[in-house]
Amino acid sequence: xxxxxxxxxxxVALRRIIRATDLHSRKLGKKTGLTTPQLxxxxxxxxxxxxxxxxxxxxxxxxxxxxxxxxxxLERNGIVNRVRSSVDRRRVIVTLTEEGQSLKxxxxxxxxxxxxxxxxxxxxxxxxxxxxxxxRVAAMMDAEDLDAAPLLASGDSVI
Length: 159
Hints:
The chain is mainly alpha-helical. The protein has a single domain (3-157), classed as Winged helix-like DNA-binding domain superfamily/Winged helix DNA-binding domain (Arc Repressor Mutant, subunit A, Orthogonal Bundle), CATH 1.10.10.10. The protein has helices at 6-32, 36-47, 53-60, 64-76, 98-106, 111-120, 124-140; strands at residues 80-84, 92-96. Strands 1-2 form a two-stranded antiparallel ribbon. Helix 2 (36-47) packs across helix 3, helix 2 (36-47) crosses helix 5 and helix 3 packs across helix 4. The longest helix is centred in the first third of the chain and has 27 residues, at 6-32.
């Protein structure tokens, strides 16, 4: 590979990442009717004990506003319920409905979970090299200051 070919190889690799993310998001949507953030929130609701919206937002690294918007849609679709805590009436607890529990157990793993599984098996030096390289690429694309959650989803499926 010649130096003059390197930029094209980088762009092809970036495009593959974007396409893989988009294809996975579409596949998830066709199979479950959910977006990746919706699925991640459903998983968090099912995994956390008596979670509030704030607990869920922290667990999935999304803003309260984004999580609230997603929960509103999930509640309208009969996937989650919000109920006042019997112990502390100020707390609103989010729970999965039967349909939500079914979706949680049958949905495919989010793409980022597969990535994290594979990434965690790499040697520490290789993990650090990848992080540094991707941070450099983000800076080269003027994206280092963009707010982003650790979710791999196509841009139109965030909510």
